[in-house]
Amino acid sequence: MFREIDHRVIFTDADFKQFGDKLGYSLAQVPYHPSGRFLITFLTGKIPEWRGRYSLAWFKNNLSEQFSSVYAFVYSTECMKYAHWIAKKSKVPLVVHLADHSPEFEQTASANILRRASKLVCITEEMKLKYEQTLGRQDIEVLHNGAEKSCYEVAPPCTKPFSEQNPFILCFIGGLFSHLHGDCIEDLFYAVSQIRHKFPWVKFHLYGQRQPAHFLEDLIRGDGFTHHGIVMPLEKKFEIMKKAHCFVIPSSFNKQKHCHYRYSFPTKLPELIASRRPILSYGPKETSTNSILETNNLGIRIHDRSVPKLVKSLETLVGQYQESIDQFASASPLLMDKFSAGSVRKKLSKILSFN
């Protein structure tokens, strides 16, 4: 989204350090480990945070440039609070972009930051309505990831007779989190296992991190399943998309988990739509993903938790694949423009304009 905007990137998750270093990004691990042994490291400005306190020395050593604003793409209160502190120290506007909803954002300290932010952005219309009611703001913008031109140029999926040499690839791209995908992703494993008795060349490939690291460990070890880990550099995803025949988006059926995740959706959804491949959305109807797919008449949507329904849908998808492409993967040029990265960048530029 920032390709045409001069910027610096600070990331707060050490899991991405290897890739962040290659891209020239700066790591500010927040929160840092609270152990007392890191007190001296904190006081000497070698780490940005310790026990809820932020290091002014680290800030001066690593963020000495003059910035016009601080943009925080947040999924945790810790990330947002640190961005708020940086904006205060820099005396510049703070733009908060909420990627996921959490009850923690409704707590007093976090809610006050959101109310006072110069601009507030949500990733879906459903999330916008939620925070309009929560915060009393009526100026919230909606902005989500867009699809690069490379996504539209991904070759159509191969529809030749499937076999061991030309397997049918069911694909998941994104972080796998037990609190977001548990109580639904497991059903996809069970369904694929059953389908493989009839179509042994059906495979399920998953890409991204897992939280916790052992999440789904036993299932991933089964025949026909491969977890490839984090996708970096991001350009690799185009080759992954090229090989995939259908993308899956699971949303937990657990009511407690669903009430949080329903307001968000995978940042890669526009890219998946642009790839012209069927998308299988498995989760409650009241999610932003299903709202977008239904509004635009896209994808295979299963709203009841049922392994037999999954098996039936997947068997039809595989057995009548060309028909499935025609039925579930079509999209108009107007829709493609709506989800394009170019359109998203234009909107972001307007949001970051404080003139």
Structure write-up:
The protein has about 350 residues and is α/β, with parallel strands linked by helices. The protein has 2 domains: about 10-30 and about 65-145 and about 340-350, Glycogen Phosphorylase B (Rossmann fold), CATH 3.40.50.2000; about 150-335, Glycogen Phosphorylase B (Rossmann fold). Helix content is about 40%, strand content about 15%. It contains 18 helices and 16 strands. The protein has helices at about 15-25, 40-45, 55-60, 75-90, 110-115, 125-135, 150, 180, 185-200, 215-220, 235-245, 255-260, 270-275, 290-295, 305-320, 320-330, 335-340, 340-350; strands spanning about 10, 25, 50, 55, 70-75, 95-100, 120, 140, 170-175, 175, 200-205, 210, 225, 245-250, 280, 300. Strands 13-11-9-14-15-16 form a 6-stranded parallel beta sheet, with helices on both faces. A 4-stranded parallel beta sheet has the order 5-6-7-8. Strands 1-2 form a two-stranded parallel ribbon. The chain starts with 9 loop residues before the first strand and ends with a helix. The relative contact order is 0.12.
